[in-house]
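Progress against Task 2.4 (sequence-to-structure conversion) is shown through the following example record, which the project officer requested during the mid-term review.
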Amino acid sequence: MVAQGLVYASMVGAYLIIIMGLAVYIATRWIDDPGDFMLAGREIGSWASGFALLAILMSGGFVPAIVLHGYLYGVGGAWFFWGWTIGQALVFLTYATFWRRSGAYTPAEYFEFGYGVSGRLAVLLASIVAMLMIAAFQFVGAGALVASLMGVDLFTAVVGVGGITIGYTLLSGMWGITISDFIQAIWVMVSVFILIPVYLFMNHGMPSAAAPDISAQMMQWPFGSMAVASFAGGTVISIVWQNWLLANSPYYWVRASATRSEDALKKGYMIAIVFSAFIAVSGAFIGLWAQMLTNPDAADQAFGALLANEVPVWLGGLAASGVIAATMSTADAIYQGIVNTVVRDYVQRFTSINDRNRLLLVGRLVVVVAGFLTVVIALSYPGQLGAMIAFAFAFVAPIFILNFDAWLIRYGTKEAAVITVLVIIPLVTYWEFYSPYIESVNTLWVAGAVSLVMFYGISALVRVTGPWWSDSVDNLGDQLSADIWQQGGD
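Structure tokens generated for the chain above:
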């Protein structure tokens, strides 16, 4: 085990040295101003955009979760990633190009035109809370994987993964994130979702109901042993809803804003959708092999147990380094979203700091603070990986409603935006930790239903009574955003 841990550590260390070297190169050659750091000069092409979308999910939080769902539900576990595929397809068909066309760096910047300054600040708060929680979820998953493979404690693993991710984002910004995402997405797809299934098939055959731990229902397409619909977690409808919420996360807006054109963005989404459909099936079967071959202490540890005991050290090392690196790509994308949100929606909007060097410094300081908070949250969360998915994504619910309203309905008010955000954050926290109904009603459904009813209920009331407060919009910034708001999402 010690020798195996050293091999894993060496492979992961070698990859991280390379990726940090790339970050230093990009920081010294490509980052000249805040636009380069925050949006890569809006020069991201279709293939880089597509694989960057994939890299968000192929990470230390999501890869073990993909395998976990296959381990628990058999072929029905594919719905965990098919849910993401459907969520991305829905965003692609609705407002992904609208995000790019808006000209805005962040959702909050754009929403000011419809919901005023107070609405912008509310979205800023919701965005930061959501992104911190989602990044923490990544570190929980990656830390557990590193701890099980390398024989270190969870604290050391989480701090190590977090520290490297913070350092990488601190140096290279959006350019570095995009290039590393492209590399990491290919690395994980090949090492985890192609090479591991090929090796397991050649040595153990296909999983089947003949295996003692695999039921016949787990092998029945298309749902396996997963329930289709209920308000609890771990059902097909809940997973699709969960991933549609994820697709509305602020860092997806940031990625859309950084693409070269609407056409490049469309092609990028199509690339991600096609490859994700394959990954879903492969991940479900890896979970079935884990069910057949391993006996982990907890279901969350199935992927780590499979790597540690059932594949060659070199392949386990490739997969582990890829997953840990992809965790960096997801977390650094989230940090980039936080940087853009804080710098664009607070510093540039409400302070006199306009010098590009000072803005770059502020952006990098934000990375450090956000990284510290993320690590603290990851170490403090008492739940397990599966539970944390719903908790993290539930904070996106108000942003989902605002995105949909800004794109199509255009009925909401600033009062509704502010109050909905201020209610959802404590409500989600209470429901996850203290509600006696958490086992029967998933946090995602509570957050979504309350956000929808509150936002449109309060908006209707405000339209009857008149505005409850006034705030000025005296610094509209990008005129393109103002024009798009007037035109609507079409």
